[in-house]
Amino acid sequence: MKRARTKSKTKHAAAAKRPAAKRRRTHAPIELYYWPTPNGWKVSIMLEECGLPYVVRPVDISKGDQFTPQFLAISPNNRIPAIVDPSGPGGRPISIFESGAILQYLGRKTGKFYPRDERARVAVDEWLFWQMGGLGPMAGQANHFRRYAPETITYALARYTDEVHRLLGVMNMRLADRDYLAGRYSIADMACVGWVRVVERGWQELSEFPHLKRWLETVRGREAVRRGMGIRIEAASAVDMKDPKVRAVLFGQRAR
Ligand SMILES: N[C@@H](CCC(=O)N[C@@H](CS)C(=O)NCC(=O)O)C(=O)O
User: CA 153, CA 74: separation in Å to the nearest integer?
Assistant: First the structure.
């Protein structure tokens, strides 16, 4: 016991003498509360892009893990993703929910993919919030009515499909004269890529949006994006969205 304490004291003293950058590497990894969905991918992509050490804490949203008191304590909206950074501001742990807030936090923490210059940052914020309030929710609803609604509701399908089509057109125009949404590759691109992929795979061929198509190929071709979107969770691959138990968890949620 005595020897163990001495050893750990020595270890800490040695760590304190190391340069700051090296010391940081000894910190506990960020915990990523995750399920492989377009919102989850945003954060796994950013963690991969930044080379930050992290551990995946799967939250099986098909079984109701998002409603456990432990998860609600860090994500009161019962949605993934969320993170816990043991080395938050002031060296103390911090938990964060909402993918946009997480991306901005990680961008500020690392100084990567979220420029400090105010004009450049505003451009990133514009497209990040465009994703949060537009592309994500609209594509999510279009996808829901297309794949999960128990009956075909033509009006709802057309409304959300049209709106997604409009948004893809906006994105395509924006990308006509720049490589990425805010000029340089940023958290705004990371926020959008998963949703554009869902739409492209689901129902919307991209040949009428050539700049968007080029952007999707470029972003998806990045190693970190591949890794971030490729985290395998066995249980997620096995989820049957037709299973009444799964549908009861995910659909028809009301205030609790
Ligand atoms: N605005 C949230 C949306 C997150 C969200 O909708 N997450 C879905 C997975 S893509 C979820 O956790 N669903 C669980 C549920 O519906 O109970 C964000 O961007 O973080």
Answer: 36
Residue bearing tokens 């970190």? 224
Pocket test residue of 32, 33, 37, 39 for ligand 1, highest count of atoms within 8 A of CB: 39
**Nearest CA residue ID for atom 5, ligand 1:** 79
User: 80: CA distance to ligand 1 center in Å?
Assistant: 5
- First-to-last alpha carbon distance for the chain, in angstroms, is 49
- Chain segment 1-42, per-residue pLDDT in tens: 333 333 333 334 444 455 554 545 457 999 999 999 999 999
Sign of CA dihedral 7, 51, 133, 121: positive
Judge if the beta carbon of residue 62 lies within 6 A of ligand 1: no
Tell me how long the chain is.
256
Report residue 58's pLDDT band, with 50, 70 and 90 as the boundaries. very high
In this predicted model, what pLDDT tens digit does every residue of 228-247 receive, in sequence order? 999 999 999 999 999 999 99
| 127: CB partners within 8 A, 6+ apart | 174, 181, 182, 186, 188, 191, 192
Specify whether the CB–CB gap between 182 and 124 falls below 8 A. Answer: yes
In angstroms and rounded to an integer, the radius of gyration of the C-alpha atoms of the chain is 21
DSSP per residue, 82-130: EEEETT-GGGS-EEEESHHHHHHHHHHHHT-SS-SSHHHHHHHHHHHHH
CA trace torsion 232, 246, 137, 215 (10° rounding): 30
Return the SS3 of 58: strand
